[in-house]
Amino acid sequence: MTEAEALGTSHFSRALMAVCRVAVALMWIQNASWKRPPEFGEGAEPRRDLYNWTLKGVEHEVFAPWAWLVDNVILPNFVAFAWFAFAVEVSLGAFLLVGLATRFWALVGLLQTTAITFSVLNAPHAWHWSYFLMYVAHLALLATAAGRAYGVDGTLRPIWRQRGGGGSRLLLAAS
User: Fold this and answer.
1) With 0-12 CB in 10 A as exposed, 13-18 as middle and 19+ as buried, what is 45?
2) E strands of 19-115, at which residues?
């Protein structure tokens, strides 16, 4: 076995990437669990849940343009934003769990991690390394196409490759 085979095709490496993918999926599912529809903490006193953490993006500014966006666009339209964030995180969890369109969802995870980082990196009691670890985990899923290891991507790629066409090419790129 060559060094490249040991990294990319060994059963052990593939199993570890599948475990990583499932762990990241479970993290997103757990992260969505404290976002409580339909108000997401907006009407609560004291402020809690997603609304409280969204406010931190303004109260503990990390990146001025992001703080402006939160203050002027997201907070005035909070419930719509909250439903969108909830849907993104549930979808991240679901798609990564089954390993479908894994590269696409790894990119979405990087974007969502950026939004979270810009909101809470400077918040009191935030563990800064957790956001950097989220970046690294999503980069690993993206780089290794982790859904091809014991995921739906690995099962369906041969079918998508045979079919051709725009939709199949898109699915091949996303997997």
Assistant:
1) exposed
2) none
For residues 160 and 171, the answer to whether their CB atoms sit within 8 Å is: yes
> What is the rounded end-to-end Cα distance, in angstroms, of the chain?
26
Nearest one of 98, 52, 109 to 75, comparing CA atoms: 52
Cα pseudo-dihedral 98, 99, 104, 108, rounded to 10: 50
1 CB-near residues (< 8 Å, 6+ apart): 10
Q: How far is CA 5 from the centre of its chain?
A: 28
Using CA atoms, how far apart are residues 82 and 70, in angstroms rounded to an integer?
12
Whole-model pTM?
0.91
Q: 49-86 pLDDT, tens per residue?
A: 899 999 999 999 999 999 999 999 999 999 999 999 99
Whole-number Å distance between alpha carbons of 61 and 91: 28
Per-residue pLDDT tens over the stretch 121-158: 999 988 989 999 999 999 999 999 999 999 999 999 99
